[in-house]
Amino acid sequence: MNLRKLWKFIWNDNSIYSWIINVVLAFVIVKFLIFPGLGFLLDTSHPLVAVVSCSMEHNGGNFEKWWEDNGKWYEDHGITKSDFENYKLRNGFSKGDIIVLRGGNLEKGDIIVFSGRSDNPIIHRIVSKNNEVYQTKGDNNLDIISTLGENRITEDIILGKAYFRIPYLGWLKVWFSEIFEGKKYVCPN
């Protein structure tokens, strides 16, 4: 088969075989070209992550209400309301969002993704930095969860820091995980 016939088959043929080849090509292009290209540009091995838990939710994005319910923990740990208001993504994000990551210097208040002791990477906010050792906390969690390993995070397990969020697009990952991996990510009310 010459290239012209192959091109026509892929793009103009309406058969199931053409459709399957298109899906496979799309997967290969995204997996092996676009994703690594984004990683290179953003200086991280994981340029996109889906949020699969509620640990960073701020109850509808109402910062004042969220601070009223959660601010005491931060104040007790040396983070003022004014400090928090200046943090990137100060209103957190929701289960089902996609977070775009990048590399770079890490500071208190940054949201990072790291390989913890769970199956999925963890995405929480840095609440303490001592030399190159970090502590994080999910904004919606009551405290630091040491069983996740977030009380002693080193540079070698950090995958990147949050740059911005794309709402809802991560639900595909959440649904596929729940269907194919048998995992159910339930958020408390």
Compact overview of the structure:
The protein is α+β, with helices and mostly antiparallel strands and 189 residues long. Helix content is 35%, strand content 20%.
| CATH class wording of the largest domain | Mainly Beta
Number of continuous helical runs: 5
Strand order of the largest sheet: 1-2-7-3-4-5-6
Briefly note the structural class of the backbone: alpha+beta
- What does the average pLDDT come to? 87
Q: What is the name of the CATH topology of the largest domain?
A: Umud Fragment, subunit A
Whole-number count of domains: 2
Low-confidence stretches: none
Overall shape = elongated
Specify Rg, calculated over alpha carbons: 20 Å
Write the H/E string, N to C: HHEHHEEEEEEH
SS strand fraction: 15-25%
Helix content: 25-40%
CATH superfamily of the largest domain: Umud Fragment, subunit A
Number of strands: 7
Q: Assign the CATH architecture of the largest domain.
A: Ribbon
Our measurement of the CA-to-CA distance between the termini, rounded to an integer number of angstroms, reads: 58 Å
Sheet of most strands: 7 strands, antiparallel
Model description:
By secondary structure, this protein is an alpha+beta fold. The protein has two domains: 3-41, no CATH class; 46-180, Ribbon (Umud Fragment, subunit A), CATH 2.10.109.10. It has helices at 3-12, 16-42, 63-76, 81-85, 171-180, and strands at residues 48-50, 98-102, 111-114, 122-130, 133-137, 153-154, 158-166. The protein has a seven-stranded antiparallel sheet with strand order 1-2-7-3-4-5-6. The longest helix is centred in the N-terminal third of the chain and has 27 residues, at 16-42. The mean pLDDT is 87.
